[in-house]
Amino acid sequence: QVQLVESGGGLVQAGGSLRLSCAASGRTFSSYIMGWFRQAPGKEREFVAAISWGGGSTYSTDSLKGRFTISRDNAKNTVALQMNSLKPEDTAVYYCAARATIDPTWASWGQGTQVTVSS
């Protein structure tokens, strides 16, 4: 497993942008699929985006395509989530997660970072 620490959350006005970052520890970071999830108050945690170990493939929730972009830097052991044109409904705690390529379970999670979008 890897240890994950998110940063970059905060308060932003609707229409603004934020860039979340997740720093991972461990020498095998590049072998993990990385993902972002979010959980809004009173709602279940939902998938936001994921990126393959090499960064060549990305996946995201259809409703967020065009606004949210996931990327990774294996040399720095980081994964980022660029969020543009933010809406109040994007308000949530955002979590970074990792899973091995052969394991469908997201085994490692960060502590989360709060994103609040004001109208």
Can you describe this structure?
The strands form 2 sheets. Strands 2, 4, 5, 6, 9, 10 and 11 form a 7-stranded mixed beta sheet that branches. The chain is globular, with a radius of gyration of 13 Å. It is mainly β and 119 residues long. The protein contains no helices and 11 strands. It has strands spanning 3-7, 10-13, 18-25, 32-39, 46-51, 58-60, 68-73, 78-83, 92-100, 108-109, 113-118. 0% of the residues lie in helices and 53% in strands. A hairpin with a 6-residue loop joins strand 4 (32-39) and strand 5 (46-51).
What is the chain-wise order of helices and strands? EEEEEEEEEEE
Q: Which outline best applies?
A: globular
Structural class: mainly beta
Biggest beta sheet attributes: 7 strands, mixed
C-alpha Rg, in Å?
13 Å
Strand composition percent:
over 45%
User: Number of helical segments?
Assistant: 0
Secondary structure: number of strands: 11
Mean pLDDT: 94
How much helix is in the residues? under 10%
Between the first and last Cα atoms, what is the distance in angstroms?
A: 39 Å
Q: Low-confidence parts lasting 5 or more residues at pLDDT below 50?
A: none
Summarize the helices and strands and which ones pair or pack.
Elements: E1 3-7, E2 10-13, E3 18-25, E4 32-39, E5 46-51, E6 58-60, E7 68-73, E8 78-83, E9 92-100, E10 108-109, E11 113-118
Parallel strand pairs: 2-11
Antiparallel strand pairs: 1-3, 3-8, 4-5, 4-9, 5-6, 7-8, 9-10, 9-11
